[in-house]
Task: structure prediction
Amino acid sequence: MLFSPDHPIEHIRRWQDDYTRFRRDLHAHPELGFEEHRTAQRISERLTALGIEHHAGIGKTGMVAVIRGSETSPHSIGLRADMDALSMQEEGDCPHASTVPGRMHGCGHDGHATMLLACAHYLQETRRFAGTAYLIFQPAEEGRGGGKAMLADGLFERFPAERIFALHNWPGLPVGKVAVRSGPVMAACDYIAIDIEGCGGHGAHPHLTVDPVLVAGHIITAAQSIVARNISPIDHAVISLCGMQAGNMDAKNVIPRTARLVGTVRTFNARTQERIEARLRELVTSVAAGFGARATLRYDRIDPATLNDAQQARFAARVAAQLFGEENIVHDLEPSMGAEDFSYMLQQKPGAYLRLGQGSTGGGSDERHNLFLHNSRYDFNDAAIPYGAGLLAGLVEAGLPVRGQVSDVRGQVSEGRRQGSEGRD
Result:
């Protein structure tokens, strides 16, 4: 897909090789949430070289870059990218594979940070907007609460973006496609732990025991009835018990005293979330009691649902259509039951979360770009860098238009001016 030379995507494509090397360096040196010291340092070095103001240590290892447009304006837009890796072993054979055992950029956050950095480069060089762009490099998205930590550190008090946007690569869409929708995009994430206490004993004399393994099996089965029989068929919810620990695998004739189940619950609305928690507590207690055991449920609410503001989703879709062509915008991609702590930022500011195509139609080694997120052979597709960076930049140019700018991307510029006069869309 080719564009005119002054198109943001084509402008950024000139730096493709440089940012590909940068992204692959991040991939080779993955860091977990709140440990992204090297990653933050590498980003800071680039921002410094570009002459971009930035502030570190927000939410522990988070960072915010501040870029002011060519015209003064009280308006502002925030762009956010995550930086952390996963606790998993990479099994791919790419030349830039992880050098850290048990750590891997299996979700493309190395690509997200690189795209936001390339966007910063473009905005600083062109400055074709009025007002302020805040570029947020967030730590610890993978279940460690980095977004919440940045907010607790006064993110929006110090960097008062009026609206905020983020994107995530999506292997199910080819490069050059963007998915945008209003309302639910990602589910709320809750973690559960069920502790069961029975009475251990000899496996040859089970009648003298209260078997917690048997109780665990019945709780697993009963839990699956909650969505099927307590949640409306037109709602969406998932209960997955993903791990069980009981007994000693070398003690084949010993019934243990305790067992533990762990898992996750995913929902889109608070009523469903509350209903599932209440029913789980009732079932866990009553099923265990029916067998003469005791069981307790720990229910931790990790991330709320990611809900796009309708006006900002429409705005983002219009900008994406100007950049990519309307035929490359997907408006009906189903919400994901995965979770995203960008949701905390969307609770405080109107905005939208977009999905960026990163799939490859090539073949061979390119197939790793089509593997789904968290796969041990996944790799971010570097061909998507100018598309993601250009899209982020386009949101700023369209949302914070300079006076008299009425053409192309900058897109929806006259529309963006109108939106600005109506409460920032």
Observations:
- Residues 70 and 127 are 5 Å apart (CA to CA).
- The mean pLDDT is 93.
- The first strand starts at residue 53 and ends at 58.
- Residues 270-290 form the longest helix (21 residues).
